[in-house]
Amino acid sequence: MPETVLRSFGQGTEPLLIVHGGAGHRSTPLTEDGTASAHAALERVLAAGHAVLAEGGSAVDAVIAAVRELEDAPDFNAGHGAALTSSGTAELDASVMTGDGASGAVAGVRTVRNPVTAARAVMDQSEHVLFGAPTEAQLAEWGVETVDPDHFITEKRRRELAAFQNRPDPMVQHGTVGAVARDASGHVAAATSTGGIVNQQPGRIGDTPLVGAGTFADDATVAVSCTGTGEVFITEVAAHSVHARVELSGAGADEATVQVLDRIAARNGMGGIIVIPAEGAGLAAYNSGDMFYGAATAAGSHTHV
Ligand code: ASP
């Protein structure tokens, strides 16, 4: 198991945005073009999300803006360019939560251009938290943009699926995108979106749309977005576990995150977690070998590929 890597960004109560484009392990290094494309995509994502914070916007608007960009970028496993199921289809999951306890999520959507916008619609417009495969009529009522299911499928992902089916390697199945933010009013929010894992059975749902597992936010403690072995993140209730450790044991966000990643490793899982506390530095941590991530403050941005 690779060692746990932890990087910190920002300080005090300053507005802060941290994003990830999925944790996993690369059996072959990214090409030069792939590296440049992922850095450029992360810069676009940070610019979109941080612009919201710089204009005095809310943490939830910032994470939605950032995750939409991540979903549109084919470099990452969410939205356009999502990982494909064993049947070659894209089944997309997303969730959002604000620090005051509002949340919304969708699982198994096939036509929503930006699944995180459907999660937000559930949060803002329904009395519920989670919808599995909402109907086209529900999506229309929520005013969510839909596209043909082929929009999500890229040639690269078709080749990846064929290679995986030829020679399965669980370490390379992973990916997901997410964002956490703290705004000038001291509110935090988190959002996460994924195509799941490469070659997953149709209907399989991971941690991403499950509030408490893949996503959690509380203004008194932390905002959290996860990526990694979904089944283990679910059983560890990973995102909420970071919050609970901070709230109940008084652990720092960094200590709490490493403890949760250690428990995930002990159960044969791996992945990454981004966290922004109500006050203090935010962080990106992973124990999977590789993770795409980036952070932006008023002082500038940093991307890692
Ligand atoms: N956690 C995601 C899922 O299980 C996949 C990942 O982040 O690698 O669907």
Protein model, in words:
The protein has 305 residues and is α+β, with helices and mostly antiparallel strands. It has helices spanning 32-54, 59-72, 115-125, 136-142, 155-166, 230-235, 238-249, 253-266, and strands at residues 5-9, 16-24, 92-98, 103-109, 130-132, 177-182, 188-194, 215-217, 222-228, 271-277, 282-286, 290-297, 300-304. It has a single domain, classed as Glutamine Phosphoribosylpyrophosphate, subunit 1, domain 1 (4-Layer Sandwich), CATH 3.60.20.30. The chain has eight helices and 13 strands. α7 (238-249) packs across α8 (253-266). The chain is globular, with a radius of gyration of 17 Å. Bound molecules: aspartic acid. Aspartic acid is lined by residues 22, 24, 174-176, 194, 196-197, 206-208, 227-228, 230, 233. Aspartic acid (ASP) is lined by residues 22, 24, 174-176, 194, 196-197, 206-208, 227-228, 230, 233.
